[in-house]
Amino acid sequence: MNFLVAIEGISYAGKTTLCRSLAQHFAYHRLYELGDKFDGGIRFPPFPETDEEACESDHWFLEQEIRRYRCAKQLLEVNPVVVMDRSHLSSLAFTYARERVFKIGSFARHKQSIEEAVSRGLLPTPPTIVIDIDWETCSRRRSSWLACRELGACRGDEVAMSNRNFVEQLIHFYRQHAVHNVPECLMLRGTDSAEQLLSYTATWITKKLSSSNSR
Questions:
Q1: Which domains does the chain have, with CATH numbers?
Q2: Which of 31, 104, 180, 208 is deepest in the core (most CB within 10 A)?
Q3: What is the pLDDT of residues 126-165, one digit of tens each?
């Protein structure tokens, strides 16, 4: 039985590094994150300034996630393990923090749209690994990234990720929502070494695979 798993967490947590390590060391197939397709987020919809713009942006991200899941299903036909670099949890976390900090958009509306897509089989609810980091770690890693980025390049979430309150709301969402609402979730410390994160994740996936195959 083939297996789909999502790697989640805020920006700079180390998701993509872990996904690429899993692909390199275990031949798991990494499903692209949206930033890969849109120049690191530069071509994402701009950060909304009104509720109407937020609704349009949320719909755009939902449609992109549905397209990603179609790719995941195709990949699962020929790959034993497919690792999603982010899932629809990312857009839920973003709308949650955006509403609370900037008072823009509706988390409840976006959550309902995602739940409807899940119920129709358009989105998955895969076992999920969340890499947890605090504001200080995020800020330090962000500063390092900004120091070495190409001139003129800018991540699509930089407007929000520079805001401490916004980042802490993202962290709160993952710590609370993931633990209580994702059916199968493993929370890892993002301050652990890359080798430790790889080992923990590979062991967890192996156990899940064994459990699925024994049913």
A1: 3-204 (3.40.50.300)
A2: 31
A3: 999 999 999 999 999 988 888 876 544 555 566 788 899 9
